[in-house]
C-alpha cells in the first residue's frame, strides 16, 4: 500500500490517492467487521506515512474515519484509532491545525476512557498535538474558544485534567493571547477548582495563578467588567479554596481596575461583608475580604453625589500620556528605576493610559443601600459585619449626602433598632451614622424632612437652626430654634431625639444599661446643648409621667457627672448669657418631673434661694422610698468634685444663707442614715459668721457673689413645679386605684 501511494504521488495522480483513501475508509475503517476496521485504521496510517508532506492535502479524508472509531465499543479498536491518528498527525504536523477542534473534541473524550491502554495512547497523541500548537503561530484561538467553553464544564476528573493541561499550554505560548478570552472560561475554571482530586485542584490553582500574574502585567487588556459578576458568585462559594481564590482575584480587580468596579459594588458587598465576621479558621479569607472592603470604599468620591435627573454617568478624568508621566524631572531626578516603582500603582496607571476610550462609571447607590439595609436587618450576621455596614453608611453620608438622604426615611428605623445591639462598638458606629444624619446640611434639603410631624412644637422653648453658608432650605426649619452659638442641626435632629426617647420608653432595659452611654456619646458627636434642650422640650409633653421622671433623672445624672458635659455645666453654673438662662428655663420645666433633680439643677446653677423654696414644697409631696433614695444620692453628689464650688461657698455664710438653709432642708428630709451623717458632718464644718468677719466684711464677697439672673420669673417656675407634681400625684393615685381593682378581680 505505501508503495502504491508513493507511485500515485510521483505521478501526481490525486484522484487515485483519494480513491485509495476512500476504499480504506468506507470498506475497511467503517466496516461492520472489527478486524476490517483495524485493518482500515492501519492502512490509513500507512497511507499518511507514504504521502509524507502531501498528507496535508488529504487530512479531512484521513482523519474523519479515524475519529469515528474513537467511539467504538471495542477498547482494542479505540487503541488502534489512537495509534493511527498519532501517525497521521506526526506526518502532517502543522497542517492538522485547521482540524484542531475535531481532534481536541475526540481527545477530550478519550481522556476519560476507562481502558488504561487507550488512555495511555491518547496521552501520547495529546503531547504530540501540544508540541505542534506550541511550535506554530497559526493556531485559531477564536475558533477554539467556544469548544473550550463547552468542554470546561465537564464533571469527569480526567476530562477536567485534560482541559486544564491545554489551558496551561495555551497560556504559555507567547503568540496566543488567552487573556482576551478569560471571561469565557473563568467560571469553568472556578468550577474545576472545587474538584475532589487534589492534583486537579493544584493544576487549576496554578492556571488561575498564571492568569492573575498576566492580569497584573497587562491590566490594559483585561476585561474587568465582564468578569466582576463571576467573581462575586464564587466569592460566596462554600468551598474555602474557591472562595479564597475568588476573593484574592476580587482584591486585585478592585485595586487594578479602580472605579470600573463601582457598578458591581452591591454584588461585591454581598459577597464580602459576611466574610468579615469569619473566625480564625477562615482567617485568610477574612483578611482578604477586609482589604476588598476597604479598597472598594475608597473608590466612592464626592463627585458621585452629583445630582442629575437622568442619573448622569461619571466620566473618569483624562490621564497624561505615559511619555509625559515618565519624562517628568521629578521622576528622572529621583534615581529610581522603573522596576523599583510601586507595581500596583504602575499597573493602574498603565491600565488607564492604554484605554482608548474614556470609561464611564456610575455608582449604583440604590443597590448598595439595599444590600447594607438587608445586612442590618439580618440578626444572624456577626459583629464585624455590622460594624462594616455602619462604616459604609457613614462613609456614604459623608461622600454622597444628597443621594443618601433619599434613603434616610427607610434606613432610620433600623438604625434606631441597632442601638439595642449587644456590642458597644456597633452602637458607637450606629451613633456616628445617626449623628451625621442629624447634623448634615443635606438633611435640610426640601422634601427630605421628617414625616412624623416632629416639627409641630410650641413656641415657648424652641430650638433654632441657623442656616449654614446658604446651603439649607428654610422649609425644614419650622419650629426648630436654639442659641445661635450652637452648630447646625437639620430637620432629622429633632426626629432623632423624639424616636430615641420613644425607644428608651419602650425598652426600659436599654435605658438602664445603655442610656447614659448613648447620650454621652451623642454629646461628643453632636452639640450637648442642643441634645439636652431638645430632650427637655420633648419630655415636657411626655404623657408617661413615670418614664419622664426616670428619663429626667438619667439626664440629670449625666449632666452632673459626665466629663463630656464639662463645658455645658460651666455654661449653666453662672447663667451669664441669655442663651444659658434660656437653657436653664427649658431644663427646669422638664426637670420638674423629678423633685430631687430639680433641686440639684438649682444647686448647679447656684439658684440657692429657689432651691430652698422648692425644698419647702417637699412637705406637700408624697415621700416614698425612691424619693429618699434620690435625696441620698444628691447628698453623695454634693460631696463630689463637681460641687467643690458649692462647698467652698459655705465659707461665705453671710452671702449664701439660702444655700445653708437648703442643705439643712435636705438634712431634715433624710432619716438617720449614712447620708444624714455625711451631710450633718458637712454642715457642722460651716464656720460661725462672727468668726469669719474681717475688715472687708462690709463689702460684698467678690469670690462668692451670685450674679442675679435677670429675665427669670422664679415665681412662675415654682408654680410650674407644683403643677407638674400635682399631675404626678394624680397619676400615682390612678395607678394605685387600678392596682387595687386588679387585686379585687384576682380575689373574686
TrEMBL record:
Record bears the keyword Acyltransferase: no
Domain Vacuolar protein 14 C-terminal Fig4-binding per the UniProt entry, residue ranges: 508-686
One Pfam family from the record: Vac14_Fig4_bd
Coiled-coil parts of chain: none
Gene Ontology CC terms, in alphabetical order: endosome membrane; PAS complex
Subcellular location: Endosome membrane; Microsome membrane
Keyword Cell inner membrane: no
GO process annotations (BP): phosphatidylinositol biosynthetic process
Keyword field: Endoplasmic reticulum, Endosome, Membrane, Microsome, Repeat
Spans traversing the lipid bilayer: none
Subunit text: Forms pentamers. Component of the PI(3,5)P2 regulatory complex/PAS complex, at least composed of PIKFYVE, FIG4 and VAC14. VAC14 nucleates the assembly of the complex and serves as a scaffold by pentamerizing into a star-shaped structure, which can bind a single copy each of PIKFYVE and FIG4 and coordinates their activities. Interacts with NOS1.
PANTHER family: PROTEIN VAC14 HOMOLOG, TAX1 BINDING PROTEIN-RELATED
UniProt function note: Scaffold protein component of the PI(3,5)P2 regulatory complex which regulates both the synthesis and turnover of phosphatidylinositol 3,5-bisphosphate (PtdIns(3,5)P2). Pentamerizes into a star-shaped structure and nucleates the assembly of the complex. The pentamer binds a single copy each of PIKFYVE and FIG4 and coordinates both PIKfyve kinase activity and FIG4 phosphatase activity, being required to maintain normal levels of phosphatidylinositol 3-phosphate (PtdIns(3)P) and phosphatidylinositol 5-phosphate (PtdIns(5)P).
Similarity comment: Belongs to the VAC14 family.
Name of the molecule in the record: Protein VAC14 homolog
Species of origin: Nyctibius bracteatus (Rufous potoo)
Taxonomic placement: Eukaryota, Metazoa, Chordata, Craniata, Vertebrata
Amino acid at each position: 500500500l505505501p508503495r502504491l501511494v508513493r507511485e500515485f504521488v510521483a505521478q501526481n495522480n490525486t484522484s487515485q490517492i483519494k480513491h485509495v483513501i476512500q476504499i480504506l475508509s468506507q470498506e475497511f475503517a467503517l466496516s461492520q467487521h472489527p478486524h476490517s476496521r483495524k485493518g482500515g485504521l492501519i492502512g490509513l496510517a500507512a497511507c499518511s506515512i507514504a504521502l509524507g508532506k502531501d498528507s496535508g492535502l488529504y487530512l479531512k479524508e484521513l482523519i474523519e474515519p479515524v475519529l469515528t472509531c474513537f467511539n467504538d465499543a471495542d477498547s482494542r479498536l479505540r487503541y488502534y484509532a489512537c495509534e493511527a491518528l498519532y501517525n497521521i498527525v506526526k506526518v502532517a504536523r502543522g497542517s492538522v491545525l485547521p482540524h484542531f477542534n475535531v481532534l481536541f473534541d475526540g481527545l477530550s473524550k478519550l481522556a476519560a476512557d476507562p481502558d488504561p491502554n487507550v488512555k495511555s495512547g491518547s496521552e501520547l497523541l495529546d503531547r504530540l498535538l501540544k508540541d505542534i500548537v506550541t511550535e506554530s503561530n497559526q493556531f485559531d484561538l477564536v475558533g477554539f474558544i467556544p469548544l473550550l467553553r463547552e468542554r470546561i464544564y465537564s464533571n469527569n476528573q480526567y476530562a477536567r485534567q485534560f482541559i486544564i493541561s491545554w489551558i496551561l499550554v495555551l497560556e504559555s505560548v507567547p503568540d496566543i493571547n488567552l487573556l482576551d478570552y478569560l471571561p469565557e472560561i473563568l467560571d469553568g475554571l472556578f468550577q474545576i477548582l472545587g474538584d475532589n482530586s487534589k492534583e486537579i485542584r493544584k493544576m487549576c490553582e496554578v492556571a488561575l495563578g498564571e492568569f492573575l500574574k498576566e492580569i497584573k502585567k497587562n491590566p490594559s487588556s483585561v476585561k474587568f467588567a465582564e468578569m466582576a459578576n463571576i467573581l462575586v458568585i464564587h466569592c460566596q462559594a462554600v468551598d474555602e479554596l474557591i472562595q479564597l481564590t475568588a476573593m484574592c482575584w476580587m482584591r486585585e480587580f478592585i485595586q487594578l481596575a479602580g472605579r470600573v468596579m463601582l457598578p458591581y459594588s452591591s454584588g461585591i458587598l454581598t459577597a464580602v461583608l459576611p466574610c468579615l465576621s469569619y473566625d480564625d479558621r477562615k482567617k485568610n479569607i477574612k483578611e482578604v475580604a477586609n482589604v476588598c472592603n476597604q479598597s472598594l470604599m475608597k473608590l466612592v468620591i464626592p463627585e458621585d453625589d452629583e445630582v442629575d435627573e437622568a442619573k448622569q454617568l461619571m466620566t473618569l478624568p483624562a490621564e497624561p500620556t505615559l511619555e509625559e508621566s515618565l519624562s517628568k524631572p521629578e521622576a528622572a531626578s529621583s534615581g529610581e528605576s522603573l522596576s523599583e516603582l510601586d507595581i500596583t500603582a504602575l499597573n493602574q496607571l498603565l491600565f488607564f493610559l492604554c484605554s482608548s476610550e474614556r470609561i464611564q462609571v456610575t455608582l449604583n447607590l440604590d443597590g448598595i443601600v439595599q444590600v447594607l439595609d438587608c445586612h442590618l436587618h439580618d440578626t444572624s450576621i456577626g459583629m464585624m459585619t455590622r460594624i462594616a455596614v455602619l462604616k459604609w453608611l457613614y462613609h456614604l453620608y459623608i461622600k454622597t449626602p444628597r443621594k443618601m438622604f433619599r434613603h434616610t426615611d427607610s434606613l432610620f428605623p433600623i438604625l434606631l433598632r441597632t442601638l439595642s445591639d449587644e456590642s458597644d462598638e456597633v452602637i458607637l458606629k450606629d451613633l456616628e451614622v445617626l449623628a451625621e444624619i442629624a447634623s448634615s446640611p443635606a438633611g435640610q434639603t426640601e422634601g427630605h424632612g421628617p414625616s412624623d410631624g416632629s416639627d409641630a412644637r410650641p413656641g415657648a422653648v424652641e430650638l433654632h437652626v441657623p442656616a449654614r453658608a446658604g446651603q439649607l432650605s428654610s422649609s425644614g426649619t419650622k419650629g426648630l430654634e436654639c442659641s445661635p452659638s450652637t452648630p447646625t442641626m437639620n430637620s432629622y435632629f429633632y426626629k432623632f431625639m423624639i424616636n430615641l426617647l420613644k425607644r428608651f420608653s419602650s425598652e426600659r432595659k436599654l435605658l438602664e444599661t445603655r442610656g447614659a452611654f448613648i447620650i454621652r456619646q451623642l454629646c461628643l458627636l453632636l452639640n450637648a446643648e442642643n441634645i439636652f434642650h431638645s430632650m427637655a422640650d420633648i419630655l415636657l409633653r411626655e404623657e408617661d409621667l413615670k418614664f419622664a421622671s426616670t428619663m429626667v433623672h438619667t439626664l440629670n445624672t449625666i449632666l452632673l457627672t459626665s466629663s463630656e458635659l464639662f463645658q455645658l455645666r460651666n455654661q449653666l453654673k453662672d447663667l451669664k448669657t441669655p442663651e444659658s438662662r434660656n437653657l436653664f428655663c427649658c431644663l427646669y420645666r422638664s426637670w420638674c418631673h423629678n423633685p430631687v433633680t430639680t433641686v440639684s439643677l438649682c444647686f448647679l446653677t447656684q439658684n440657692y434661694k429657689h432651691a430652698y423654696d422648692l425644698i419647702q414644697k417637699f412637705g406637700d409631696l408624697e415621700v416614698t422610698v425612691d424619693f429618699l433614695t434620690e435625696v441620698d444620692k444628691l447628698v453623695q453628689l454634693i460631696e463630689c468634685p463637681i460641687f467643690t464650688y458649692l462647698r467652698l461657698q459655705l465659707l461665705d455664710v453671710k452671702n449664701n444663707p439660702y444655700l445653708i438653709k437648703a442643705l439643712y432642708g435636705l438634712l431634715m428630709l433624710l432619716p438617720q442614715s449614712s447620708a444624714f451623717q455625711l451631710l450633718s458632718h458637712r454642715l457642722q464644718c460651716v464656720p460661725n459668721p462672727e468668726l469669719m468677719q474681717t475688715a472687708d466684711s462690709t463689702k460684698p464677697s467678690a469670690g462668692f457673689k451670685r450674679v442675679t439672673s435677670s429675665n427669670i420669673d422664679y415665681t412662675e417656675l415654682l408654680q410650674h413645679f407644683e403643677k407638674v407634681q400635682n399631675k404626678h400625684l394624680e397619676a400615682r393615685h390612678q395607678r394605685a386605684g387600678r392596682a387595687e381593682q386588679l387585686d379585687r378581680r384576682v380575689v373574686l
